[in-house]
Specification:
This protein has about 325 residues and is of the alpha/beta class. It is built from 18 helices and six strands.
């Protein structure tokens, strides 16, 4: 398969073109641009929000979505050590987490003295959502260009559950551990209050999934109308573009906290077995790897090398298929 000579974007990616030197249109468009818009402005805004939240003198300044993976582990450490936040870590147990990730959570949170809550939705509902999420008509192309349908559903459930807990407990901000490669880098995507989209429009996004699974999907993928009316509504903050993201530093820091990498996950995950199935299903339907865009963006930002990116999007087929088959068997059981 032809890939960009600078990043790893493939010829099968929607709308891509290449110049005579094999450089893709995404690299050409980004040439000379800063990877993060208005970084000093964003840093000042983050500092202001943190001061505002601390001044409320609540039990918790922030809720952190904690998967036990490398990024959310480093995020909790940084928020504790650099910003001194009083935090509640919230984990979505989707039924497909590596057992090693729970061991990592226990070690890390004991070291950092952070409170922890695990949210575990109905297993039968979660299985049906994940089984149906990879169908090509469930999510629009503008979303599946950046990730598998399975991961889109899971990330939305994580965010929604975290917002629900934050509203219930009066926590003023939700911190997410999305890497800079998972964000398009607009200011509104880095810090926002997620109650601006009209309720029915938001509901329409999940309608194809609800038609396959049932209306119960709305209870885990969305808040109810009264929850969206919460005032003030919690901030949602993707902090990594502001606080910095370097994988060598992340691994070095979290290993000192006792974190170890799980063995039963694919090369693009450090906590979830479900990810392998999302990759295989996405490649079958869309003919490109769901991590192509993220890895390429990390390459353009100088966070990882092109060689490292290639390792992650050219998974060893036997291992990826074996992991995916195990997960699919669990989903169908």
């Amino acid at each position: 398969m032809k890939r960009c000579t600078l990043c790893v974007m493939p010829e099968t990616y929607p709308g891509i073109t290449f110049d005579s030197e094999g450089v893709c249109s995404f690299c050409s468009k980004q040439s000379g641009k800063q990877p993060v818009p208005s970084l000093p402005k964003l840093q000042a805004k983050l500092d202001e929000i943190i001061r505002e939240c601390k001044a409320q003198n609540r039990k918790y300044d922030a809720l952190v979505a904690y998967s036990g993976g490398k990024d959310s582990t480093f995020l909790i450490h940084t928020l504790k050590e650099k910003y001194g936040l009083r935090m509640l870590a919230v984990t979505l147990d989707n039924g497909f987490m590596s057992e090693a990730s729970f061991v990592n959570m226990r070690k890390v949170l004991n070291r950092l003295n952070v409170d922890h809550t695990i949210v575990r939705p109905r297993y039968d509902l979660m299985k049906q959502i994940f089984l149906q999420s990879s169908a090509p008509e469930v999510y629009p192309t503008h979303l599946t260009q950046f990730g598998s349908g399975i991961c889109i559903s899971c990330i939305r459930i994580v965010t929604n559950m975290c917002l629900r807990v934050a509203i219930e407990k009066g926590i003023p901000m939700v911190m997410l551990g999305n890497s800079p490669g998972q964000l398009i880098q607009s200011e509104n995507e880095i810090m926002f209050q997620d109650n601006k989209i009209p309720y029915e429009l938001r509901r329409n996004l999940f309608k194809p999934l609800a038609e396959r699974v049932g209306d119960d999907v709305y209870t885990v993928l969305m808040l109810d109308k009264d929850e969206y009316r919460t005032n003030p509504f919690p901030y949602t903050i993707n902090a990594f573009p502001i606080i910095g993201y370097q994988e060598d530093e992340i691994y070095r820091t979290i290993r000192e906290l006792g974190w170890t990498k799980p063995e039963d996950v694919d090369p693009n995950s450090t906590n979830c077995r479900l990810n392998s199935l999302g990759i295989v299903k996405h490649k079958q339907v869309h003919r490109f790897h769901p991590y192509d865009f993220e890895m390429s963006l990390l390459v353009r930002q100088g966070i990882i090398t092109r060689e490292e990116a290639l390792k992650r999007v050219e998974d060893p087929e036997e291992k990826a298929l074996r992991l995916a088959e195990q997960v699919e068997e669990q989903l169908l059981s």
